[in-house]
Amino acid sequence: MNREPSLFWIDWNLSRGSVVREQIGRFAALYVVALALLALLLSGGIGRFLATRYAVTAVLREPVSRGDAEGIARKISALPPVRSSEYRDPDAAWKEFLKAYPGLDSLQAAGGNPLPGYIEIRFRHDRLTAADVTLVASVVRPVPYIEKVLAGEDYLPRLLRADRYASALCWAVFGLLLAGTFHVWRLQERIRASALAGDFAFLLDRGVPARRLASSRAAGAAVSALLVAIAGISAAAGTLFLLIRRYPILETVIGPPADFLVPRTAVGAGIFLLCAALLAAGASLLGWRTARAPRT
Length: 296
Hints:
Radius of gyration: 29 Å
Helix content: 55-70%
Largest sheet: 4 strands, antiparallel
Shape: rod-shaped
């Protein structure tokens, strides 16, 4: 009755100090990996940052009342790809123009405010695609009060291409980080398995099946990694939450704290925990092969 638990945690029973040191190091590694994963899932690479910089401008015809303009903006906001749609009256448009190009106040004195009102349309970071921009522009253009729609069709493809390249680069770096973590774990398991090879040989000589011993060690490693990964991703989520609360500007890159609870983040966290357990089990089995090598 006591054999299963002893085999399940056999490395802990035989080399407790080494296992504790390794688990501390694995927590640090999984914390860093989880921090990178959550940042990527929440930010979408640089997609969220680009979404704060890109906007479609719907220039209004003159004259148009504030009520009509705000009504159009509300209807545009209801479109699925749209994050916000805000009406700017001619006075607000003129103030923004002077802020961008100071020293041109005399233009208004000479002939009045030359700028029309407009509606600024911003997209959700996960819906900033050429298809969604075209969809919104095609819906807005036929509106009678809209004179023209400025969607940046000339530079939008380059912007989206840069987003794809940056996202691919970020995930490639994350993949290298994950591969490096597995490599370190494999080396740790190899060193520990070599140190415990005599103890394993003793058990095998007394009739303990090799497959049972290997699978028990792998299961124990998987459970340990799962627990450490839960602690690591919890600490990473807490760190990001505190950083966003402390520095609100990070919301433009990572996103609001509420996005921690969206399904995409939850699924990503679940996959992270599963991968940590599988990688630990795989590293344990590779270490077992090293321990068995002298017997073949």
